Input
Amino acid sequence: MFTRFLIKPGAPQWLWVLGVLGDFLIFGGILFGLLQLVPVRFRRPLIVALTFIAGLIYSVEFFYPADPKTQMNFLTPLRIKLGEATKVVYAFALGLGTFNLIRFHGGNVIRNRAGWFYSLIFFISFFAMAGAGFWSYYCPSKAAENTYNMLFEGIVASLGATMFSTIGFYIVSAAYRAFRIRSAEATLMLLAAFIVMVGQVPVGAYITSGLPEVGPLRNLRLENLSYWILSQPNMAAQRGIWFGIEVGALAMALRQWLSLERGSFFEREL
Amino acid sequence: MDHATWPTGTLVVLLSILILYKIFSARLGKSLFIRRIPGLNAIDEAVGRATEMGRPMVFVPGIGGLSLPTLQALSILKYITGIAAKYRTRIIVPTIDSVVYTVAEEIMKDAYAAHGTPEQFNPDDIRYLSDDQFAFASGVVGILNREKAASNFMFGYFAAEALILAETGHQVGAIQIAGTPSVLQIPFFITAADYTIIGDEFYAASAYLSREPTLLGSLVGQDYAKALLILIILAGIVTVSLPPMHFHGWLSFLNHLPDWVKWFQ
Output
């Protein structure tokens, strides 16, 4: 807001950062101060009104016909700006998360709790990754880039991929338990899963390759059976669940928008 | 975000009116029938089990930001924290999002204070782990294993980490209740968790647990809205299944009957 008027384009980056921080503190302070000035009995109606207005902007923007060329209406620019503002608030909240991490792991190290060593590893990892990030951003060089890549691509991404890979083992153990249950539903699920899985691989196609590719018997080829299960009964069930979810989301959105969700989050009234 | 077309706009308004009508009729004191949701009934049992075993519970509010699924998860967290405060059972809440972390912390503080046990709130039991999906998952897996959780609640938006969390919970012997609007993760939860809340039941949770008339009205409204959608689908199936019609005279308007389906395409 003020930053745009006070700082000229091309000014150093740190000046922009300071400007944005200043903006946030000034406007945040004004808003907080105004909220404190409002008498207690008016605070809830004020928040309800603000929630309603915010929701109304999004609702009208959705329902108001858009220009076919730009796919925008008179409220779309405001919605985009609101989305950007939300990102800024989120960026500030990130500091709270970091503070929680440091407080929790700091407590573990200082009080020598069980597993304090892992908390120490957290601090080493945290400062190493942050340091490499700042180094490669503010003092770009081959060494900085290599260090950052080694830490991020070599360790962080690899650890993530390792965790993701464990899903394969968990699928096997979960499937074993699910199919072991002796019931009509489990038998049906086992049969469907077998057809779908075998139908997805070349050996499945080979098993029923003797069946004709045309005519009614082609429906019994494993790859066709597999496709039918996925695209017909499975898709129908998924869409049924989707309908329910979307209706539920609509009901919840209405409750939030009209502030009808009282007592769902906090016992105390403002 | 797309803009509403006439059919979707009309349908959204129609469903909204139906839901709001049920909400306000419930507020006027009209008694409503509520169907049973086993997964939500099992919450008390899961808390009771953790209390008997003297082991903590873990509540994972998904991997989403402060969106509708997460808000619903937080309303369930409030209910569970309330019971945990009553029975003096520890509850650990790992979060992936710093905004969710701050809101969840306030909800838990408030719930303990409301039950007259503010001293029970331990700030170390609500933890921001990481905003990286699998770093978060490995953090939760660590907590489940180290703390030997007796109950594991998974509510909110989940993705690929759903099975990792649910299978780990099963391995440590936790009773598990899960609910998510992520359709692709529902099969994993059904397979690995003891109770799974499916589809719109997830968004009915706060109504079901609080028994607040306003929210119960919304739950009944949801059912009516679904009934309306089913009727539209059935009418569509019948219409497109009819053979081409050739009526003459005053019945000729029936020749255009199949055209209404195109309106929804």
Q: What stands out?
A: The mean pLDDT of chain A is 85. Chain A touches chain B through 65 residues (CB under 8 Å). Residues 67 and 73 of chain A are 6 Å apart (CA to CA).
